[in-house]
Each structure stands twice: as C-alpha cells, then as structure tokens.
Design a protein that fits this description.
7% of the residues lie in helices and 47% in strands. It is mainly beta. The radius of gyration is 27 Å and the shape is globular.
C-alpha cells in the first residue's frame, strides 16, 4: 500500500501545483551571458522574482551560462531550452520554491532540452515542493552538485530525462542528509547518472553516499537506467535498499569500491588503406575462428585483411565493388555453410554480392548485383522465415534500407547468391543506420529490427529523429512497422546488445545532440537518453566483447565539438547490487585517439591459440592525409595492489591515506582499510600499507 498511496498522492498534488503555477506571472531572466540573480536589472520586471512570480530562464542562449545569488524564495522556477548553472552562496543563503520545472516549455526541442546544475553551500536549506524534469519528452537534465542537499515533496523524472548526482570528496563532509529527499513520492523513469565533476577525486574507498531517499518507497517495477563514471582503478556501486524492512525499496546509495580489473589499450596494427574508409565488417571468412577485417573505401574498393595463425596479417585482397559503398553485411547467402559478403553501393542503387565457396578471402566470387530502391544506406543480414517456391530456407536473407525513398525492403535468398524481393515498408524520412534488435537475428525470424531516421512533425515541431521498429513475419517474410520511437536527435549510428541480461536486446542509438539513446521493449518500446561527456559528439558505434570480462561492451567513437580531439568510450553493462532490477552502465575506459573515427567493427582477433576482441577503426581522409584502419586491442589486467591502499584515490599512497587507515583502526567489517580482510584493521594491515608506499599509477 505504501507505493500505491505515494503514486496517487503524487499525481493529484502535481496536477494542483501545475494549475497554481500557471496563474503566476513570468519574470524572465534577460542575460544569455549569465550574471547576478539579486540584480533587479537582470529581470524582465525590473525586480527580483518573489513568492508570487515564476522565474523563467529561457533566453535562447547558445552557450551554458552561470547565475549566482545569495537566497531565493520564488513561486516557481522554470528552465526552458537554456543550460543554466545556478549557484547559491552566502551566510543567510536558502532556496525555496513551490515548483521547479526543467524542459516543460514550448521552446524545448531536441537541440534545446533544458538543463540545470544546482549548487548550494554545504548545510544550506533548500526545499522545492515539486520537481519535474523532462515533461516535453526531451533529454532534459537536473544536476545536483556534491555540496548540495535538496528536499522536495515529489520528484518526477520523465523517461528521456536525466538526474545527475555529482560526487567528490566534499560529498563525505557536506551533510548527513541524502542528496535528494523526496518526502511523498518519486518517479524514476529516466536515467540516473553518478559521476565526479571534472578534475575532481571520488570520495575515499568504502565511502557510501546517500543519494536519494523517499520514505514512501521507490517503484521497483520501473527502476531507472543508472550510468556511473568512475576513475581508473575505481568503480561506483549503486544499490537500491529497503531501509525500514517493509519489502519496498526506498533509498539509493552509491559506494566507492576498487575495480578488480582495468583495461590497457594496445594498438595491434595500422593498415594503410589509401582512401577514406566508409564501412568495416568483421567476419570469419576462412573458418578458423578469427575474424577477417573487411573494409569498403570511398574509391569503390573492398579490401580484406586475413589474420594468420602466427599472429601476422595477410593481404590485402582487393575487390572492385560499386560507387559510393556505404555498408557491409556478412552471412551465408547461398546456403553452402560459408560466410559471404554483401555491400550496399549508394551511388549505383544496388548491392554487390561476393560468395565464398572455398572459405578463402583471396578467392571470392562475384554474384549478380542486386538492384534495390534508390540510395541504399544500410543493410542487415536476417532470416525472413520459411522458404516458398524457388526460395531457400537455409540461406541468409537481406534487409535493405534506402535513404532516397524512405523504404526498407526484405529480400529472400534463392540459394545461389541471388535474391527475390518479398516485402517492403515505409520507415520515415531520410532513413539510414539500422541493426537487428537481437544478436541471433540471422538465425531467428522473430526479433524485430531498428531503423534510424527522421520525420517532420512527429512531436509538432521541426525534424525529429526516430527509431522505426520493423517486425518480420516468420511465415511469409512480410515486414510491418510495430512502433516508432522519438529519439534525442537525428540518429548517426545504431547497434544492439542485451544490456540487462533479460534475454531481450536493447537498441543503442547515437544521435547528433550528444546522447546515447537506449530503446527497450518487446511490444511497447520506451527510450532512455544517456548524455555523452560534455562537448562530445558520437561518430560511430559498435557492440560486442572487447575485453576479458564476460558480457557485451558498447564502444562509441566521439569527437570534441570545439577542439576536435577524438576518443573511444568503452561502456560496460553490469548487474546492480542488492534487490531490484534496472540497467547499470559503467564508463570503464576513455581511450584517446589521434584521428576522428568514421567506422568501427568489433570482432575476434589475435591468433587461433589466443583469441580476443579486436576493434577495427576507420578514419576519413579530410581529417588526416593518409587514411588508414587501426586495429586496437584491450588488455585486461589486474588493478595494481597499490590502488587498494590509495584510499583517497589521488594516485599516491602517502600520509593522507595513512590517516584513513589509522582512523579505521580496530574491528572493521568489510572496510577497505582492512587490507588482509580478516575483519580488523591492525598492524598487519599497516605493514601491507607501508609496503605499497609511493606513487600508484593505473
């Protein structure tokens, strides 16, 4: 009953609050460069907003801005499309408002979702009766600085929005209160992010931060996606707990722990391609368990590199394909048990089909090109179901998305490298990237496919990014659109992986607005939007196993909007601790790159005796003079022992850590200072600690 009462009260009270807020006057902030909240000249009324005003921040600013004040008692605060950093400080500082809304105005859009970072002095009172984030369905965000503590009656985080908790060493001493106290109800339908601010240290090892408490309970049926951004050698372990033992989760805590392993990037090889790389596929063409690297270049050439048993690379083996190749797929298209290739040629409106009868990447045979609707942008290997007439059930089929026509077409294999069109469906304007929403889609005709694209007027505004969910019929191969999901921006890449271990894959979409959208569902689909690091835009995405830790990783190539720096982000899903479900994603690696990637493929590399994930990274020629493809591996190593003694995480075992071990002296169950894990911190632990004294690089 606790949860039902909380949700009912939440709905009624929020409706009443919204009506009251609508009757208040809007006193608008005027300065896109930021400024002093206590200066009347910065407000449209010529006076500072008071208890009967709504303070509106919506000046169409092109950059984030900071506003600073000493105190505030305001009827309501609304953040439109701006990105606002609000800092309240001073001896008598306090903040009180009936309503805080972020992303609930008509000015909000994919490009202007609305973001607020709220920073208050430690111990300063702040109570906001109702907090609502992401009402309009865009990727709005509320960030709470590490020193801040907020109280509210109801907190409503909508599905596409983000609640970000910043934690650092201030978090330990700021207050004994939870960062966010929601007295009468909480809805966590969006993303919760836990991260240290830039250039800050996480709290010391073993520290548990009380992030969120709702006495009336947190709905365990709709726990959020949680994203953590730890530091090397550390992980942040979030956990939903039942504080009062009534069987209902009511608190979210985050504990700093040692990461048992860490990854070290290793460049395996650089392949000189000579022309811009447009698409890469990893496929085992010779049947030895190690994937070949298949590269399509802007020059209309397909290049194949073959790893050898000795650890070297043979090739390249070159094939002429078509004009403007844009995508590669692999599968057994003729039913002979070997892996063949299909390449989408955007400039020729067709597919090149290369058969592989002898499992020899140096001796592929060109079948008849397959004419497709104008502007093929992506293709996927699928199973379109049972055979009919001259069609073959054992051979792989093709799903082709055509940008110029907005059509997705299903082609059933005849078994000789040729195909027959069996169905088509409209998938939106300017469609492009696509992926099966199941890693086994090549074998199973049931799972759907996700097609990224855009449409006009989907949410009453300008062009909107969408993911169209297309379901094949296992009986006759017909295609039907079963859902259309609005995205945070125009999609630039689509991949899929089972992130929560429930047996159903999620679609993972990179967008032009700097988000990673997670689309999940089987019949009804929903979206969560995960913000990429500030200022980063994704250029490519892939999924698969990249290191020695079981399970899939998400690998995203990003480029800095301002400085042009490129990186790879390696994101790993893992189970949450304690009861409850939800999806937990850790950013485990940030790998710097010299050049901006345009294509990624993750396959099995190494040798037949030592297999491991190898990432192929393509580079576009306008960024570098000599475009190439780099082969990158991740070596998973044990975290150095010194990291367990570097309690404060500053990269050196020294006096600061010594103080922490002395402070924990005596019986201490499960504390990090108990280095030998015998339940007591004593001289034995001190001896181990002193043996690790000095710099601790990870």
């Amino acid at each position: 009953m606790k949860r039902s009462i909380a949700m009912l009260t939440f709905t009624l009270a929020l409706s009443a609050a919204s009506t009251a807020i609508a009757q208040q006057s809007e006193n608008r902030w005027l300065r896109p460069e930021g400024g002093n909240l206590d200066d009347p000249g910065n407000w449209s009324f010529g006076e500072v907003p008071g208890p009967f005003d709504t303070a509106v921040f919506d000046v169409n600013a092109t950059q984030p801005y900071t506003v600073i004040g000493t105190s505030g008692q305001v009827g309501a605060i609304e953040i439109g499309g701006d990105e606002v950093n609000a800092r309240f400080s001073g001896g008598s500082q306090f903040l009180f408002t009936e309503f805080l809304g972020i992303g609930g105005r008509s000015s909000n859009s994919d490009l202007r979702p609305g973001r607020l970072r709220l920073e208050l002095d430690p111990g300063s009172p702040a109570f906001l009766n109702f907090i609502e984030v992401g009402k309009q369905g865009f990727a709005s965000q509320l960030s709470i600085a590490s020193s801040s503590r907020l109280g509210t009656l109801f907190f409503d985080l909508r599905p596409a929005a983000t609640l970000r908790f910043e934690i650092d060493q201030q978090s330990v001493t700021s207050s004994s209160q939870p960062v966010l106290l929601a007295k009468e109800g909480v809805n966590l339908a969006g993303v919760v992010e836990i991260a240290a601010p830039p250039n800050s240290l996480l709290p010391p090892l073993g520290t548990s931060i009380d992030l969120l408490f709702s006495p009336l309970g947190i709905d365990s049926q709709s726990l959020p996606t949680i994203v953590t951004v730890p530091r090397p050698g550390r992980r942040i372990a979030p956990e939903f707990v039942d504080t009062d033992g009534d069987g209902i989760l009511d608190r979210l805590i985050g504990t700093i722990r040692v990461a048992e392993t860490t990854n070290v990037a290793e460049e395996v090889e650089t392949l000189e391609i000579g022309a811009p790389t447009i698409a890469i596929e990893a496929a085992d063409l010779d049947g030895d368990g190690i994937d070949e690297i298949v590269i399509a270049t802007e020059a209309g050439k397909l290049r194949i590199y073959q790893p050898t048993a000795s650890g070297g690379i043979a090739g390249p083996f070159d094939y002429v394909i078509g004009t403007d190749p844009v995508d590669i797929a692999s599968g057994d298209y003729d039913g002979d048990g070997t892996i063949d290739l299909a390449i989408a040629n955007f400039g020729d409106d067709d597919l090149s089909i290369l058969l592989n009868p002898d499992e020899d990447p140096d001796d592929l045979l060109a079948a008849e090109n397959l004419a497709v609707p104008a502007g093929p942008a992506s293709l996927v290997t699928i199973d379109l179901g049972a055979a009919e007439g001259n069609l073959l059930s054992d051979a792989a089929d093709l799903f082709v998305v055509s940008r110029s026509t907005g059509i997705a077409t299903g082609y059933k294999s005849r078994g000789d490298g040729t195909f027959e069109k069996v169905s088509e469906v409209q998938v939106g304007e300017d469609p492009g990237p696509s992926a099966p929403i199941d890693d086994e889609n090549k074998k199973d005709p049931d799972p759907p496919l996700g097609v990224g694209g855009s449409t006009s007027g989907f949410r009453g505004g300008p062009q909107t990014g969408i993911l169209t969910i297309v379901q094949p019929d296992p009986g006759n191969g017909s295609l039907a659109v079963v859902d259309t999901v609005a995205l945070s921006g125009i999609p630039t890449g689509v991949a899929a992986a089972d992130l929560d271990g429930d047996g159903t894959a999620e679609s993972i979409v990179t967008t032009t607005t700097g988000y990673l959208d997670i689309v999940r569902g089987e019949t009804d689909f929903s979206r969560s939007s995960i913000p990429l690091p500030p200022g980063k835009i994704a250029t490519a995405i892939t999924t698969g196993r990249f290191d020695a830790v079981p399970g899939p990783e998400i690998v995203v190539a990003v480029i800095d909007e301002g400085e042009g720096e490129s990186q790879l982000l390696v994101i790993r899903p893992r189970p949450t601790e304690g009861p409850g479900g939800g999806t937990l994603l850790d950013l485990v690696n940030v790998i710097p790159l010299n050049d901006a990637p345009t294509a990624l493929a993750l396959g099995t590399g190494g040798t037949s005796k030592s297999e491991r994930g190898t990432l192929s990274i393509g580079v576009l020629s306008p960024v570098v003079e000599n475009p190439d493809v780099k082969l990158l591996g991740l070596n998973t190593i044990e975290t150095p022992a010194c990291s367990k003694a570097d309690f404060n995480g500053d990269g050196v075992v020294n006096g600061g850590d010594l103080g922490l071990i002395i402070g924990a002296w005596g019986p201490c169950e499960n504390c990090p200072q108990d280095l030998d894990q015998n339940g007591v911190v004593n001289s034995a632990d001190l001896g181990l600690f002193l043996s690790l004294w000095g710099p601790c690089a990870i």
